[in-house]
Amino acid sequence: MNDMLQVHTPASIAPLELDGLGFTHRGQPLLSDLSLRLDGCRRTLVLGPNGAGKSLLMRLAHGLLPPTHGRVRWQGEVPRQAMVFQRPVLLKRSALANLTYALAVHGTPRLRRRTLARQALERFGLGALAHRPARVLSGGEQQRLALARAWLLEPRMLFLDEPTSALDPAAIKAVEDAVTDFHWRGTRILMSTHDLHQARRLADEVIFLCGGRLLEHSPAERFFTAPATPQAAAFLRGELVW
Amino acid sequence: MPQHDSAFATALALILDLDPTLLGIVVLSLQVSLSAVLIAALLALPLGAALALWRFPGRGVLVVALNALMGLPPVVAGLAVYLLLSRAGPLGELGLLFTPGAMVVAQVLLVLPIIAALTRQQVEELHLEYREQLRSLGLSRLRMIPTLLWDARLGLMTVVLAGFGRASAEVGAVMIVGGNIDGVTRVMTTAIVLETSKGNLPLALGLGIVLLGLVGLVNAAAHLVGETARRRLG
Amino acid sequence: MRTRHTLTALGLMSLSLTAVAQDETPYITLASTTSTENSGLFDAIIPQFSETSGIDVRVIAVGTGQAFEIARRGDADSLLVHDTAGEERFVAEGYGTERADVMYNDFVLIGPSEDPASIREAETVEQAFSRIAEAEAPFASRGDDSGTNRAELRLWEAAGVEPDGEWYRELGSGMGPTLNTAAGMDAYVMADRATWVAFDNRQNLVLLFEGDDALFNQYGSVLISEEKHPHLKHDLAQQWHDWLLSDAGQQAIADFEVKGQQLFFPNAE
């Protein structure tokens, strides 16, 4: 369709190292002593029961929150990042204006913004809705708009925090396709979900959290076939774990 | 000016006659209050937004002070500006006392706390919602201000209208710093006070009805703009 | 789009501020009393002065106490008030250079038409005040340190009465508002004749007592010290002062009538 569809041949993305990461809120440790390393251009899915600290991990890694313990370290140049939230936060403007706004923040020259925004809308199937107020779009349309916005920022690292938890199957499919597109373009993905089937469809590797601790970080195939911890095994069997 | 026994008849006659004295008073009232609100808004909108975004020691005191100043009696504001602009005061050299300029200054003082305090509240709420997304986009707090003000604009229009309401309704401040000089600093509210003190109550009330109508017109215009925007932007 | 809005707003503001800016006719600021302004005297005589001199007079109508304060701070070019003792003190303190009698009118006693204290039949104003105090009939006092208020307090003193009690109500208001309140509570009130004649909201109030020499109300024009306030328009103020005392000025005052009544009587020497 256009140049944005091409698969980039990316220069390597700096590895992300989480080093003894912890977060305590009002004396309550919500995440403790978490160390891991993300490199390459993989799709890493974060799994775990509710309250395991999945969202918190994403926010700490993205830099929205400062950790109370340990640190987030990029081994090299900090790459361009974007994040898609469970409930998309869209500005009180038209769908198109939401995208041109992100481009303006991004530093795109004024003259190019509309064209790029239009292309992104078309790409995410929102072309007909360009002038609709973003906030009256359906949940699925809003999430696609949020993805289009992230797409325009050309991130090398994309965080997605349960982006499909409130969507119907068709909308879920659109989001998953988008994640795949990002991946093809050479973007490293860190995405949390509580949908095991979705994780099986998308994951290259899995991070399993439980009670604010990292229990497993392994290739997807191994995680799903031979989980190393009893909690992960129970979680995969669909039992309640906490 | 026309005189009738009933305030409504007087008001009607005032409007229908297009009395030049009244017209002058109306124009001056609008000029003074609109200028004051415009200046106050230009200062108070960013100020309120900054207060919503930054945490610093003494912020709580500042917020409470601003909220309290919303209730500043106009006479006190007038007196403060009078002492400031009086020849014997620190800014006496400007020669602003008893001019429309002085009235604008006094009304800015009255309107600014209202707009700043209410802006802080509205922007703070919106910021709570937008914060993560805007930070994710890499915006500094300074750059968030215009975004938040723009997205809060429908609510902020009501805030600015509240400021305009206060400016156009007050009499205490403009009376003291303007002096109610015929043809120079006489506005709707001071004219109403004057007619009341002459015992000409129907004319005073008639002027009051005209003032109410004017404020109503400004509000209706703003409402129309707001509704159009709301329908367009959801 | 946002810049366009901002520009429009800025444009509107500068437009309105330019419009607010003053025209260039020379003018003086005159601090005077509500009684002269409310009666319409200035509307009648200032145009005549402006026509011959080309000078506009901007009147700040306040209580006499406030008028002195405005002049003392250098915010007015000239004074026209009615408190001879205060005016002389103002000159003695060095704030004023010259004081001259301009005109007089008189105070009148107003009250409910039933006249519960029977002051209609009083021989002197002192007697009228005593009767009001004895009857403890409601009396509305300006209570604002104005010229009228000061004159009223001197009369209570002359009558040997300490005005005090439920019946004596200090309002802290100008002449007009005091008359409005008196009408509302059917109280006695002392007013200058000019304000009374021009006053429209009388309800049950009528004029009950007048004509005593002690009710004489002298107005004086005072020039402000050039030494204290060099920035003032002393030349223009002098022209106004001189015109008030001139034949033309005195005639203009004598010609001013409300409802067929002459309200001020010129008496410049």
UniProtKB/TrEMBL annotation, chain A:
ABC transporter domain segment(s): 16-236
Main location: membrane
Subcellular location: Cell inner membrane
UniProt GO molecular function: ATP binding; ATP hydrolysis activity
InterPro entries: AAA+_ATPase, ABC_transporter-like_ATP-bd, ABC_transporter-like_CS, MetN_ABC_transporter-like, P-loop_NTPase
Cellular component per GO, a single term: plasma membrane
PROSITE patterns: ABC_TRANSPORTER_1, ABC_TRANSPORTER_2
Membrane topology reported for the UniProt record: Peripheral membrane protein
Keywords, alphabetical: ATP-binding, Cell membrane, Membrane, Nucleotide-binding, Transport
Stretches that traverse the bilayer: none
Entry annotated with the keyword Protease: no
Alphabetized Gene3D superfamilies for the sequence: P-loop containing nucleotide triphosphate hydrolases
Family to which the UniProt record says this protein belongs: Belongs to the ABC transporter superfamily.
Name this protein carries in UniProt: Tungstate transport system ATP-binding protein
Organism of provenance: Halomonas cerina
UniProtKB/TrEMBL annotation, chain B:
Keywords assigned: Membrane, Transmembrane, Transmembrane helix
Signal sequence bounds: none
Domain ABC transmembrane type-1: 26-222
Location of this chain's protein in the cell: Cell membrane
Positions of transmembrane segments: 34-54, 61-85, 97-118, 201-225
GO biological process, one term: transmembrane transport
Single GO cellular component term: plasma membrane
Chief place where the protein resides: membrane
UniProt topology in membrane: Multi-pass membrane protein
The name this protein goes by in its record: Tungstate transport system permease protein
Organism: Halomonas cerina
UniProtKB/TrEMBL annotation, chain C:
Keywords, sorted A to Z: Signal
Keyword Signal: yes
Any single Pfam family the record assigns to this protein: PBP_like_2
Domain PBP, residue spans: 26-247
Signal peptide annotation: 1-21
SUPFAM superfamilies for this protein: Periplasmic binding protein-like II
Protein name as it appears in the record: Tungstate transport system substrate-binding protein
Native organism taxonomy: Bacteria, Pseudomonadati, Pseudomonadota, Gammaproteobacteria, Oceanospirillales
